[in-house]
């Protein structure tokens, strides 16, 4: 059987290590040219497939592809675009088949989170529904760490390392000034429904820092929260608070809800930190500072976890290996074997059990009062932030790669998404 081409794309919010997964996919495919002729990347995710806007990765040198391993963001562009069901939008699926046929694509690798897993699962069903053979493999990625089955998600370890480090450094700053100035520092982090990123801030407790965490999994009780802040400040003279953007009131309203929606229909969040900081100021009079980590937390390749980089690459490599072994509608996973010493291996999960399923913080990872993390949570988190994997530096700045992203010649007519 002649070799088929592969389609690879990145989806959703990018991370410090998603390009390491791209590197794993492309380098592994290049070692199997008898089965994969070329890897075409979708420019801006699945939109690149629908609009036939493909990138010819064969035009990139081995050195440029290798440099993806230490370059942040999405090298081929990402998107927030979720395919509807075949019944609801047959037009898009027929277009995908048209593009796949035109470019002899037999493998589909989609690198993303929960919504991307859903898209990949739908594409995997094209063989039966529309009579075109394509093997679809989901390559896991999400800073939110909320994909099921896998122990953790590539992208999370580096965000956790960045947040824990930033919270620690800022806390040292506040501690030095608290006698006559700032008493409270509030750091807002990502995490709409799951508090994994916020939990990483709890690791600074072991450095004698008074820290409180607001999780999406724990209903926000304002009176109890203010009382706890007062207790911390009276005891230590200052307090650091890490708040997840998804922290919410008992009625389900987000502290940070803006009243707008993103492309997936999710409430757009942003502003939990100032809400919390001003709430404290009104109740106590404490002077405060607040910050929103925002893109900094997911773009910080200079402080990436070595564990995370290695796992991101391994998931990309395993995705190709699974496809070459004939697997379809699956996702490679991280399977933890031991926490101390840390050991893991590559596992496999069916996409039918991954798509549209969120993994939340277990209650035994959160302290009884709801404002901290337990020893079992620390045991889970610490291995994931281990090791440094610095990029090369030039003239004092990281030396990242920008690919040529040469287009593949179009063969079809235009298509509007």
From TrEMBL:
Enumerate the subcellular locations listed in this protein's record, separating them with semicolons: Cytoplasm
Q: What class of enzyme is it?
A: transferase
Keyword Transferase appears in the UniProt entry: yes
Q: Which UniProt keywords apply?
A: Cytoplasm, Glycolysis, Kinase, Magnesium, Metal-binding, Transferase
Binding positions (substrate) = 142-144, 190-192, 245, 295-298
* Claim: Cytoplasm is one of the keywords in the record: yes
Which residue positions are annotated as catalytic?
144
The annotated modulation of its activity is: Non-allosteric.
* Record function comment: Catalyzes the phosphorylation of D-fructose 6-phosphate, the first committing step of glycolysis. Uses inorganic phosphate (PPi) as phosphoryl donor instead of ATP like common ATP-dependent phosphofructokinases (ATP-PFKs), which renders the reaction reversible, and can thus function both in glycolysis and gluconeogenesis. Consistently, PPi-PFK can replace the enzymes of both the forward (ATP-PFK) and reverse (fructose-bisphosphatase (FBPase)) reactions.
Q: Which family does it belong to?
A: Belongs to the phosphofructokinase type A (PFKA) family. PPi-dependent PFK group II subfamily. Clade 'B2' sub-subfamily.
Show the catalytic activity.
Answer: beta-D-fructose 6-phosphate + diphosphate = beta-D-fructose 1,6-bisphosphate + phosphate + H(+)
* Example of a GO cellular component annotation carried by this entry: cytoplasm
Q: One GO molecular function term?
A: 6-phosphofructokinase activity
The organism named in the record is Thiocystis violascens (strain ATCC 17096 / DSM 198 / 6111)
- Ranges of residues in domain Phosphofructokinase: 9-320
Which Enzyme Commission number(s) are on file for it?
2.7.1.90
Matching SUPFAM superfamilies = Phosphofructokinase (SSF53784)
Site Important for catalytic activity and substrate specificity: give positions.
115
- Report residues binding diphosphate: 13
One Pfam match, given by its short name, reads PFK
Q: What is the protein's name according to its record?
A: Pyrophosphate--fructose 6-phosphate 1-phosphotransferase
Q: Where is this site: Important for catalytic activity?
A: 141
Cofactor(s) required for function per UniProt: Mg(2+)
């Amino acid at each position: 059987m002649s070799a088929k081409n592969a389609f690879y794309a990145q989806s959703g919010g990018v991370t410090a290590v998603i390009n390491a997964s791209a590197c794993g996919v492309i380098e592994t495919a290049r070692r199997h040219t008898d089965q994969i002729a070329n890897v075409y990347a979708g420019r801006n995710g699945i939109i690149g497939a629908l609009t036939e806007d493909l990138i010819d990765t064969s035009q990139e040198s081995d050195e440029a592809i290798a440099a993806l391993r230490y370059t942040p963001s999405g090298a081929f562009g990402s998107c927030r675009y979720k395919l509807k069901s075949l019944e609801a939008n047959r037009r898009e699926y027929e277009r995908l088949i048209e593009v796949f046929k035109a470019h002899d694509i037999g493998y589909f690798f989609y690198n993303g989170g929960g919504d991307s897993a859903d898209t990949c699962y739908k594409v995997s069903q094209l063989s039966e529904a529309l009579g075109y053979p394509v093997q679809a493999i989901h390559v896991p990625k999400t800073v939110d760490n909320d994909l099921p089955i896998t122990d953790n998600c590539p992208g999370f370890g580096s965000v956790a390392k960045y947040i824990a480090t930033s919270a620690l450094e800022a806390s040292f700053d506040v501690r030095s000034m608290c006698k006559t100035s700032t008493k409270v520092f509030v750091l807002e982090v990502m995490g709409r429904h799951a508090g994994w990123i916020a939990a990483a801030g709890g690791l600074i407790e072991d450095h004698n820092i008074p820290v409180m965490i607001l999780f999406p999994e724990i209903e926000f009780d304002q009176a109890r929260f203010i009382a706890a802040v007062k207790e911390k400040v009276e005891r230590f003279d200052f307090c650091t608070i890490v708040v997840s953007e998804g922290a919410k009131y008992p009625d389900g309203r987000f502290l940070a809800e803006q009243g707008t929606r993103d492309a997936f229909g999710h409430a757009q969040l942003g502003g939990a930190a100032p809400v919390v900081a001003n709430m404290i100021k009104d109740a106590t009079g404490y002077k405060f500072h607040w910050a929103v980590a925002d893109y900094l937390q997911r773009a910080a390749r200079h402080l990436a976890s070595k564990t995370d980089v290695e796992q991101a690459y391994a998931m990309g490599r395993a995705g190709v290996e699974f496809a070459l072994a004939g697997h379809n509608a699956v996702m490679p996973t991280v399977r933890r074997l031991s926490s101390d010493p840390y050991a893991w291996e590559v596992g496999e999960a069916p996409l039918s059990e991954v798509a549209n399923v969120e993994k939340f913080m277990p209650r035994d990872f959160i302290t009884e009062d709801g404002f901290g993390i337990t020893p079992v949570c620390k045991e889970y988190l610490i291995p994931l932030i281990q090791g440094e994997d610095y990029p090369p530096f030039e003239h004092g700045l990281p030396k990242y790669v920008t690919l040529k992203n040469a287009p593949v010649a179009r063969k079809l007519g235009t298509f509007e998404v």
